[in-house]
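Recall the central idea of this unit: under ordinary conditions, the amino acid sequence of a chain determines the structure it adopts. In this exercise we apply that idea directly, starting from the sequence alone.
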Amino acid sequence: MDRRQQLSIYHDACEGDCRKVARYHIFRNRETITPEDHEYLAKHINALTWNEYASWLAHDPANPRLLVERIIASFPIPEPGEEPVTFLLENPLAWSAGRYPPGVLDELVDRLRPPRLAERSWWDLARQLQDVCSPYAAILKANAPPLALALFDKRRDERGFASALATALRSCAGLERADLLELAHVAGLLERVRPDEVLPETLHFEHEPEATEADRQFRSMALQWPGDEGAVARAWFLAQVVAAAARGVQPLVLWRATPPELREAVAFQAQDAGQVLPWLITSLREALERREPDAWDRFFRYLDMPGARTPFKRVWSYRDAPAPSGPKVEELDLLDPTRQAVSLLLNAPLPENVDDCFDERLLSYRELMTESSYCGPMTSVALFHRIASFPLTTARANRLLRWALQQHAAFASSDELIRISIAADPLPESELPSVDQIVANSADVEGVALYARIAGPLAEERLRAWLRSPLDRPGEDLEHAFPEWQPFGKVLARARLLPDLVEPDVRQWLTAEARKLPTRRMVGLLRPANMSWLLDEATVAASALARAHSEQEPWVACWDTPAEFPDALLPAVRERVRSPAVGDEELVELLRWLETHNEPMRSLVSAMLDHLRDHKPGRAALRWLASTLRTRTRWAHHGRDVLLALLDAEAWEELLKLARDVVPSPEATADTEGCERHRMVVALHDAFARALVKVAERALEHDATSEVLGALHGLAALHPLTSVRKLLHHLRQKPGVTEPIAEMIALNEELLRRDTTHEGREHDLAVALSLLLEKRASPAPAVVRPTEARS
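Accordingly, the structure predicted from this sequence is:
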């Protein structure tokens, strides 16, 4: 039995009630509905309720036109029933856009137009279906149902619709016109409408009493107007903003109502109309930075407008996020527009053609710059540098050069003035300043070059006279404390600056005066290569050798280095280090210079010992001794003589400090086991022991028993090498050895015989020195310090 026969049996069993057949035999199992079931339901569709029909339609998307036909056939029906409309609005499955072929729902809306369907119900239905009704869905978004209903005619083509729309726009005003403009925009037909025919003559903005919702819609439509007519609509909008500014509308309202990309155009158009909006200075700054052709002319007009630079002290909101385009208003632009204007005058990019008129226009705002906090009293300097940055024509360079020379204070750098002078003509003699006004000092090479440029052919004569002027006025500054300010120093410095302009008599006088100078200054005159005619090395060496012992002024100052001495001074330096006039610092520097010239170490130490005979050693001498006696070998050769010299000079603290400085520190990484430190301590003990034996020997010659005993007591505290026993043996043979002295000599010999490890300490040196000084303080006869030559 097929499905049709089953459905016929069910139909008879239900006494022809199709609803019972559908409910109990078709919809009981929705997944098994067959084409025969759909055929049965379509045949008896009028017997189904709307909800049952929707349930069936959800499983039969192939017959959407049945829905349209049944809805159309159901009208008219009495209100408020309108069950088909309620069905469509409440059952989205029945009218989903994806279920119907194009035009089905358009046909439904078109054929149900009032009066067949009540206007209110038709409007609700059309709005629900607007996303699937095209192209007429756009009009359903409007808020003017009568007009939209009049325009809705499926028989019209696109041109007819546009014509009807234009007619409707001209026949209405206010909010109705604004709604229809929005309708035309959504329908894509706004470009067929002329803005000057439909936009109102006056547009009101927020906070104006006459402002309405229609004004907001007109503004939105003007800014979105497509096609070629969009420029006309935006021009209308700009004119309305300017008119609103003239009416006194708050600038913040206009700022927010204007799109960011149009704010600059609004500011400029308002300026042309005599109105100044707060963001005008910002727009001008950005136009200048883009180098727009008329930006500088517009900026000058802004500066000349009365009240243009009045600070904006009203409320301005910064909560709006910065727009990617348009002017960026900053707080300083609003609070101090004058400062921003002066900043632009002095820093904005220049126009392409900067002529003399531009200079005059810029200089006309000098008073404005002086009153501004941007430059204030430095206005002249700022203007000078601004104009100096322009392309330098001859006329502009001449004006700038005279302007700079009229200023007594430093007005511009020498480099900038030289650049200007290159483009300018030489000054006439009547306007030429003195050399001292241009050349700041005797080392001002740029000043000399500048004077040579501005003086032209008169430069050589003027500079030559300036060079010799201290010589021609010998009564000035002769006793000045600074040699550079004395006539010789001045002439010499100027001769270095202008070597080609030194005349023969000036050169002869400089040479004679140079030979009277101290050695250190004479050596300094050998350094400049262009002054070889003044002094030569042989002359300086001969003069230095003749003065080596007697000259009181140091050869080396704290800012000099003896490495700059010529080799020809070697004999003079050898004599100088043995001069009694030499000080510690000078002696040390000269000794180091001699050491770099391979002078024997014995000679260097001998010079230091001669110095210590008459001078208590200072820090420089001790540092040199410590750096020189860093090895055991040098201690073996020179240690005894150095310690004797310190003992003779009664430099007890210096002696102990020298001992501490030469012994390596326990933390030395290269001597982790302390072997080198121990060897250096032994070398110190041995040198000090030999020095004490020599002290005892000299004291014995002068019959100073307590001095001898003190030296021998100090020797007993040391751990020298066994070779000291031979020195003690020779001491025993000297005449005048008393029994106490002999006993101390024997004690020291026994101690040396037993001391096989030489485990000495640094502290033992201090103990030995203390014992020596303790015995010296005893009531024994005083010791006369020997002055004869040391062996």
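DSSP finds 44 helices and no strands in the chain.
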